[in-house]
């Protein structure tokens, strides 16, 4: 997809615009045409940003879904299809990367506890099962609103403002719910040693 030849670029851009018009009318072959032309570029860009093959492939999928959903909004006078797609892939890739980092930060900063043995010995497997049991009971013991806030922040990677918008509640409420939920989990994990001693290494 070289842009070195201006005339070739114009022909390509015109073909892209025509494909978008067909796609807006429900012509699925137009999507296949655009995918064949731009998926290598999209995957390369997504992989460079996310640095994970699976993440990059998901980004490309989501980008072309967006192309289908917004085909009727495309206006050639606002830019080329290539530029639009590149921008979409970039934004989706950055969003995924930020969410992954945010999940990692929550794991390290908010749910930190002593690491279990990395070798899968019977003792380590038993301890892991006990940990899961303690965390599960801690989650089940939370108020539904607190558990919801924690799940959205940790498992879906949403920021507190994003949770507030999705749940239609004040930002301060989200923060207080998440803080209480995290405190409950920390307390549960802090008591893990007592749990193991009391049960002899078996989850209760």
Describe it for me?
- 19% of the residues are buried.
- The chain starts with 5 loop residues before the first helix and ends in a 5-residue tail after the last helix.
- The chain is an all-alpha fold.
- Helix 2 crosses helix 4 (81-110) and helix 3 packs across helix 4.
- The protein has helices at 6-24, 28-50, 53-69, 81-110, 122-141, 144-154, 160-167, 171-190, 192-199.
- It is built from 9 helices and no strands.
- Helix content is 76%, strand content 0%.
- It is elongated, with a radius of gyration of 24 Å.
- The longest helix is centred in the middle third of the chain and has 30 residues, at 81-110.
- Residues 111-120 have low confidence and may be disordered.
- It folds into 2 domains: 6-103, RNA polymerase sigma factor, region 2, helix turn helix motif (Rna Polymerase Sigma Factor, Chain: A), CATH 1.10.1740; 116-199, Arc Repressor Mutant, subunit A (Orthogonal Bundle).
Fold topology:
Blueprint: H1 6-24, H2 28-50, H3 53-69, H4 81-110, H5 122-141, H6 144-154, H7 160-167, H8 171-190, H9 192-199
Helix pairs in contact: 1-2, 2-3, 2-4, 3-4, 5-8, 6-8, 7-8
């Amino acid at each position: 997809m070289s842009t070195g030849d201006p005339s070739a670029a114009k022909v390509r851009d015109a073909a892209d615009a025509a494909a978008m018009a067909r796609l807006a009318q429900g012509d699925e072959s137009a999507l296949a045409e655009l995918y064949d032309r731009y998926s290598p570029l999209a995957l390369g860009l997504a992989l460079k940003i996310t640095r994970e093959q699976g993440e990059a492939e998901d980004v490309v999928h989501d980008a072309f879904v967006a192309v289908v959903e917004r085909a009727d909004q495309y206006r050639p006078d606002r830019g080329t299809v290539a530029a639009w797609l590149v921008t979409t892939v970039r934004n989706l890739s950055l969003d995924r990367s930020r969410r992954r980092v945010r999940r990692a930060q929550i794991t390290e900063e908010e749910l930190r506890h002593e690491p279990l043995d990395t070798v899968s010995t019977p003792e380590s497997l038993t301890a892991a099962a006990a940990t899961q049991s303690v965390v599960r009971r801690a989650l089940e013991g939370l108020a539904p609103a607190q558990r919801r806030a924690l799940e959205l922040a940790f498992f879906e990677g949403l920021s507190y403002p994003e949770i507030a918008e999705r749940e239609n509640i004040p930002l301060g409420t989200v923060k207080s719910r998440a803080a209480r939920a995290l405190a409950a989990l920390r307390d549960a994990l802090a008591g893990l040693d007592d749990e193991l001693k009391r049960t002899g290494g078996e989850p209760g």
